[in-house]
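Handout, section B. The chain below has 599 residues.
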Amino acid sequence: MDPTYTVWVFHGERQCKLNSVNADILESRRMFRDFYVQHNVDLENPLDGRDGVIQSLVDDAETPLYPGCPTFTKMSASIAMLKHKVTHDLSDSGFDELINLVRDILPENSTLPNSFYEMKKLVNTFDLSYEKIHASKVLHYFPTIPRLKRMFGIYEMATQLRWHKNNKSSDGKIKHPVNSLSWEMINRRWPHFASDSQNIRLGLATDGFNPFKDLNSKYICNDIDVYLAPLVDDLILLWSDGVEMYDAVTKSTFNLKAILMWTIHDFSAYGNVSGWPVKGKIACPICHEDTCSIWLSHGRKFAYMGHRRFLDLSHPFRVKKSWFNGRIENDIRPKIKNGEQNLNEVDKIAYDWGKSGKRKRKKNTTQSTVTWKKKSIFFMLPYWKYIVTRLMFNVQTLLVRHNLDVMHVEKNICESIISTLLDVKGKSKDGINSRKDLETMNIRHDLHPKRRGNKFYLSAAPHTLSKAEKQMFRKRLANMRLPDGYGVVDRNNVESLEEDDFETLCMLERYLPPSFFDIMVHLTIHIGKEVHLCGPVQYRWMYPFERYMKVLKGYVMNRAQPEGCIAEQYIVEENAMFCSKYIKQASEICSKPARNEEF
């Protein structure tokens, strides 16, 4: 049929179904062309000598699924099935059985590949691959730069990557990090970088992964910098020189530059990445040496209290001795160290990555005054340690380098509150040791344990609930319905929210035992400040990454090689998702957005 012929559908002619196949061939050619343009070395003549290669690939891939098939080609059917596999976590053997079943249904002369292996070969052209790097364990590194090239090579994604240029709010509300002080500080320090909407700002999330609970979860710890080294090399290149790549929006090449704006971790990983010891007497990475802590001799742990010092000097709570620790609070809130002070301290520490070959390293006596446990590899980034001197003040260009993860903070605090109120065995923060600590601290005498013979009796605390009250509390939790979605932050109200947080923590100190106040409870004192500097928390917490860990766990089919399973399955998913943006039949599979999609 002549492709230029106009089908007169309003006059009774039927639309030719072969048009969908012809459209697929055009889309496939665009897919191959886009891929070669994204990754071609000769940027001035991106398709030099490759038209023939592209046409050969299109001809092979876009043969009809069977003679006369009106809807699917070899490529579109394969991509649709691959996307079905990765979205429903089908095993390789299960997918092979599905392929054989479909081939039995199709005519004998169908062109559908006869196995998962053959189907993968069809899309290997678009494989961005990964690198295997041996560093005590095998690191599977997925290079950042090729994936950025792919993102800018797809029109829809390239458009989203410059969303921040025209969507900054002007009503004083913080709806996105683009409205935050951290974003604005980068704009002021590097106006040339900020002026190009194609330049991007990155965040880095790290999370532990132990799919079957049978691996040693402590084998990386402080040596995580060894595994971050390839990424840091890419980040240095993206900042210092930039990378030439093709932009599908402007249909031209440009020099991409990128900056790592901040990192996101759970609290233990916060210490491993930043280098600050997040356990013990000075566990707060923001208060540093001014962390207010007390050792509980019976509970055998540190409690982080003394939050009255964050209140205004005239606040009435400061003189309430009997409510708190038995003394008037005259201390002031700790002064937050700036980046220059931190850098001066970590500069005394040499980079020391990897294993030393000994079971225990010798203590470095020359660094006895340094509280940091290591110098983070991120200080190799030029902008990570940058300080701007204005008049008599040093201004950090990165106001927050490592974010406190609100997800883990709220999870741990909620567990502690519920376990204490319901008196959950083994999890409640109120017990005999907690009461003995009150006795040792000589406060709240009415709650001290009373000994009668060989037994101790505990008086009812203000938070003690009766059986009926516990049942009512459980019922309220079960019937609780919360709004789905996120609000915005009013910049003018953030300071008042911080003051409310200070008072709330003080009220908790009045009624709950000292053992309740672990480091997670203390960290809430700093979350308001980070909201003021960085914007809404849903762009800076671990929820989406924790959910994706479940997806990655589903990729593991061989318990002996979990990393290899994840790497190979991710490559298949990456290729399938790329191709499905061009193949209509594949794009419609599992297109329903997730309810908990953060971005």
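Note. The chain has three domains: 16-126, 129-288+338-354+371-404, 406-481+488-539. Compare this with the example in section A.
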